[in-house]
């Protein structure tokens, strides 16, 4: 598989980007407040723990059932889409996907494209490819529009501009949108964005969207959204191009409602999304709206690598709700841009290695406390901590023949491996463990006074009150 040239490389500068956020009290406070808000909204949507657990079990079962049948379902989806009049394209790499999409656009002599929210289009860096080909690609989701104006990547998969304040957005609009005066009134800012986008919907020849669920039995593309821009992108332009990963497929329509319920409640704390679009064909004779032509691009980009391994296949259960990010203590402190990947946070750490290779993402696998919060809130019960441990093993073990992943062994160090083997030997022997503990307690003064960034930001342990210590002593005596 050929490698895609990235404009933003995760292996370069991860520590520096993380430290920059940690050293910025305003950003840390902003992320903490936003994540607390999202966690509270999600919790309010699941007041009954038994109902939540039952729905999570159902969601997990649906995703695993469909992944088990994925090769057959993909063929069935393609056949039904073609029967419905939708053209299907297959892309193994980001470069192939970009070539297909740009080929469709150029084949129609088009130069303007409006885009609904699509993380897969971010994954393949379609905007860069379109710009290089002289094609205007405008994001119509408000958050995506903001980060596009700022020439940034999304910092969250559900709320791309969550790192921006209204004052920053006001300055951005004033500087980048012609004829706009500075205002930090939120309603006014939204109206400014709408005015720009409404004009573009009328002018664009091409509309592009993502896909939340593709239904094999009916050949239907399902799109979840809140702003209505997805509906405009898929109906106003003459040509609609949808792009999705090969894992976003379900066999039956009846599989969609449970997943939709989990998605909206886990992502934004909503009972249901504002819009739910179901696209099964181009405009038919007699219909007054809709595109004259519909295309679907099915992207692999490392997904088949994950699929080939029984444990790593669970990565593909993801429905892109972002709940794992909202509850992650690491993401909450460093935000999405520090990761340098399209998908940040816990899900990014298990998805990105398949897309970019472990040689580019080995360091991200260790950017976790393994507290387990991500696995506890995942609506489809992806065992993210277990997968992170597996990826760490793949990244830091010695290279070997027939690796399960591209870049296996990229982070291997003979010295570190020897240290861990020594620790394992000590840990297995009570006598050795006591001896090492005894030596450590007496020669601790040989350790550096500053032992790394963790010791500089964590709060020091405080001794228990004397009353509590006395109670513990009495309990031990008893």
From TrEMBL:
It holds the Pfam family Fer4_8. The keyword Transmembrane does not apply. Keywords: 4Fe-4S, Electron transport, Iron, Iron-sulfur, Metal-binding, Repeat, Transport. It comes from the Bacteria. Residues 308-337 form the 4Fe-4S ferredoxin-type domain. This is LutB/LldF family L-lactate oxidation iron-sulfur protein. It comes from Azonexus hydrophilus.
């Amino acid at each position: 598989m050929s490698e895609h040239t990235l404009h933003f490389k995760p292996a370069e500068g991860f520590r520096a980007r993380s430290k920059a956020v940690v050293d910025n009290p305003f950003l840390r406070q902003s992320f903490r407040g936003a994540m607390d808000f999202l966690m509270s909204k999600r919790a309010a949507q699941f007041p009954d723990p038994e109902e939540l657990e039952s729905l999570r079990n159902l969601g997990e079962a649906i995703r695993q059932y469909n992944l088990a049948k994925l090769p057959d379902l993909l063929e069935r989806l393609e056949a039904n889409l073609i029967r419905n009049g939708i053209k299907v394209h297959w892309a193994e790499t980001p470069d192939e996907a970009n070539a297909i999409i740009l080929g469709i656009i150029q084949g129609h002599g088009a130069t303007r494209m409006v885009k609904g929210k699509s993380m897969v289009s971010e994954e393949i860096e379609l905007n860069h490819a379109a710009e290089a080909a002289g094609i205007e690609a405008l994001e119509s989701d408000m958050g995506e529009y903001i980060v596009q104006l700022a020439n940034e990547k999304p910092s969250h998969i559900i709320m791309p501009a969550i790192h921006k304040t209204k004052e920053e957005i006001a300055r951005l609009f004033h500087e980048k949108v012609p004829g706009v005066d500075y205002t930090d009134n939120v309603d006014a800012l939204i109206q400014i964005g709408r005015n720009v986008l409404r004009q573009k919907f009328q002018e664009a020849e091409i509309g592009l969207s993502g896909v939340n669920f593709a239904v094999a039995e009916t050949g239907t593309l399902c799109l979840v959204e809140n702003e209505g821009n997805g509906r405009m992108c898929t109906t106003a332009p003459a040509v609609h191009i949808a792009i999705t990963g090969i894992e976003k497929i379900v066999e039956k329509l009846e599989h969609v409602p449970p997943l939709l319920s989990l998605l909206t409640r886990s992502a934004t704390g909503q009972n249901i999304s504002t819009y739910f679009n179901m696209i099964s064909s181009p405009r038919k004779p007699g219909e007054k709206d809709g595109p004259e032509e519909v295309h679907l691009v099915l992207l692999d980009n490392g997904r088949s690598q994950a699929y080939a391994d029984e444990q790593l296949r669970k990565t593909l259960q993801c429905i892109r709700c972002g709940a794992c990010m909202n509850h992650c203590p690491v993401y909450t402190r460093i935000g999405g841009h520090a990761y340098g990947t399209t998908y940040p946070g816990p899900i990014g750490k298990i998805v990105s290695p398949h897309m970019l290779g472990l040689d580019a993402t080995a360091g991200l696998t260790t950017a976790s406390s393994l507290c387990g919060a991500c696995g506890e809130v995942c609506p489809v019960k992806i065992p993210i901590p277990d997968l992170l441990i597996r990826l760490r093993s793949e990244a830091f073990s010695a290279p070997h023949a027939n690796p399960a992943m591209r870049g296996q062994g990229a982070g291997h160090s003979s010295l570190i491996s020897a240290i861990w083997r020594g620790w394992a030997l000590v840990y297995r022997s009570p006598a050795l463990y006591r001896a090492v503990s005894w030596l450590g307690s007496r020669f601790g003064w040989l350790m550096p006074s500053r032992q790394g960034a963790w010791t500089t930001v964590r709060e020091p342990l405080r001794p228990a009150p004397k009353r509590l210590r006395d109670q513990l002593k009495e309990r031990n005596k008893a």
